[in-house]
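Hello again,

I reread your note about wanting to compare the complex against the isolated chains. To keep things tidy I'm splitting this into two emails, and this first one only covers the full assembly. Below are the input lines as submitted, including protein chains and any nucleic acid or small-molecule components. They are followed by the predicted structure of everything together. The single-chain runs will come separately.
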Amino acid sequence: MATLPQLIEEDVQHLDKSLREFISQTDATAALIIDKGGFLIAHHGDDSQFDMTTIGALASGAFMANQTIAGLVNESNFNSVYQQGEKYSMLVVNVDEYCLIITIFDAAIGVGVMKYYVAGTIKQVAEALATARNRNPDGGVDLSMLNLADTQSVFRKREGE
Amino acid sequence: MAIINQATKELQVKVVYYGPAMGGKTTNLVQVHDHVQTAAGNKGKLVSLATSSDRTLFFDFLPIEAMTIKGFKTKFQLYTVPGQVIYNTTRQLVLRGVDGIVFVADSQYEKMPENVESFQNLMDNLATLKLNLTEIPYILQYNKRDLPNSAPLEYMEFLLNNRELQVPSFSASAHKCEGVFESLNMITRLLLQKFINQSAPQHA
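Full-complex prediction:
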């Protein structure tokens, strides 16, 4: 079993820098890096008006479902999903076997701009994540301080119910 | 696979509620959403992608942040799968990246074949992801214990928990919120135990 993938400060800084550059190049509203399992890894941009966690989970599911549909019609070249809106549009692009980039942008901006600039961002993000995955496991996070005796009360019902 | 972000001291884990159709998977999430005690703002919205008759079409999704444990903010993402047989491809998609499973079995006698079939389906779908149940923490929840035609627990244990390594099992009546939090806390316990074992420093 592989050790846990971990992101240290340096990884997060790399990812954040890549997203920041991408947003500055494209004027996108927000950009997210998500795991294909639905986890939100990093995000940048205006997060006050969007529920990033839920967008990440749903976009991951939508991408994977569309990829499966593409496979059913014998299309093996599948790497993005574009949702065209009236206010905001969204582009979900494949990074590698594990991750996706989601960009949310004003509908007035052409998707071509996003596709052009995201190519460079994909490369940077893929490199940063590969570095994180391949890091020496000796640097393992120390979770031994977790008190397992406490887990029975990690989730509690509200009082009086 | 869980994500650990040491920069923000966050641990994100994915728990999937699996089981036969109409067994109570969505009800589990609804009860957690309705009754969980949280600090303001750390309970996400329950998202259900369901048909007009409230049958799960894609999945239900509930992001929830547990209390901080020893400095780690633990974010749980709870998913259900659609139980109906025709949605098997969707179940495979939802299982991707799973860290722990709550198998919700229906206690009614006539549902036993569906329970067994769904459990086998779970193992088959994990195999397509190159996973197996010996590697993933899971527990069994025997739901609908309040119904008069429920099968004896011993019988359900024999059908579903008859392996070399027996896993924790819980009686539940999810619509009354009985057994729901017990199940969630136990899978949490198993998950954290696994992470501790995995993250122990490697010595030559």
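For quick reference: Chain B has a mean pLDDT of 88.

B.
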